[in-house]
């Protein structure tokens, strides 16, 4: 039985090891994402620098994480992490490894931006000026489908092979085309 007045030698040894093995916290400098060319930003985030700045200015009050530790991600970094996730649907680990941040931080960033966009949904997505209930009723009357307010369709329009960026115009059916999508609303009710 150990004496309550004396510290155990194992405990003292652990303290010595802990002091010797503890390292200073290293804070990596973050890249300025907007310093990259727009082609790179569009490939990685699907947005240009101007649009990322615009989105950041609009979303900053909602996504910034207040911390008293002084090393939290900036709103620009949070937005870019989420945009990168939305653009390529990569796993959180892969995205965290690329950005040198933890999986939990990536998850929080994606969640914060997603919830903010959800709250601001009706700022960007607006129904036509007439009431959607009338559209629903008319589509139900015509086709028997409940809850429909419009129809979307797409078509490949064949084109001759362009001389520049020819590969970008080859569709999944292996011919050159432009993909056109359209929404059909009912005539004015």
How many runs of DSSP E, i.e. beta strands? 2
Mean pLDDT across every amino acid position: 80
The structural domain count equals 2
Q: What Rg, in angstroms, do the CA atoms define?
A: 27 Å
- State the secondary-structure class: mainly alpha
Strand percent estimate: 5-15%
How are the strands of the biggest sheet laid out side by side?
1-2
The helix fraction, in percent, is 40-55%
Given as residue ranges, the uncertain stretches (5+ residues, pLDDT < 50) are none
How many helices?
Answer: 8
Which outline best applies? Answer: elongated
Helix-strand topology string: HHHHHHHHEE
InterPro entries: HARBI1_animal
Protein name: Nuclease HARBI1
Organism: Salmo salar
Structure in words:
By secondary structure, the protein is mainly alpha-helical. The protein is built from 8 helices and 2 strands; from the N terminus they run H-H-H-H-H-H-H-H-E-E. It has 2 domains: 92 residues, no CATH class; 53 residues, no CATH class. The chain has a two-stranded antiparallel ribbon with strand order 1-2. The model has no long low-confidence stretch (mean pLDDT 80).
């Amino acid at each position: 039985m150990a004496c309550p007045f004396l510290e155990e030698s194992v405990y003292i040894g652990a303290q010595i090891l802990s002091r010797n093995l503890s390292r200073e916290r290293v804070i990596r400098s973050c890249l300025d994402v907007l310093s990259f060319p727009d082609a790179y930003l569009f490939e990685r985030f699907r947005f240009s620098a101007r649009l990322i700045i615009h989105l950041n200015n609009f979303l900053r009050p909602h996504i910034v994480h207040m911390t008293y530790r002084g090393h939290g991600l900036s709103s620009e970094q949070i937005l870019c992490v989420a945009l990168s996730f939305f653009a390529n649907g990569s796993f959180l680990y892969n995205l965290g490894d690329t950005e040198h941040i933890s999986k939990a931080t990536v998850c929080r960033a994606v969640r914060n931006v997603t919830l903010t966009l959800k709250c601001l949904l009706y700022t960007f997505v607006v129904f036509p000026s007439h009431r959607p209930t009338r559209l629903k009723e008319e589509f139900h009357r015509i086709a028997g489908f409940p809850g429909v307010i419009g129809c979307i369709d797409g078509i490949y329009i064949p084109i001759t092979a362009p001389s520049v960026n020819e590969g970008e115009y080859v569709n999944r059916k292996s011919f050159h085309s432009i993909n056109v999508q359209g929404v059909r609303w009912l005539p004015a009710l």
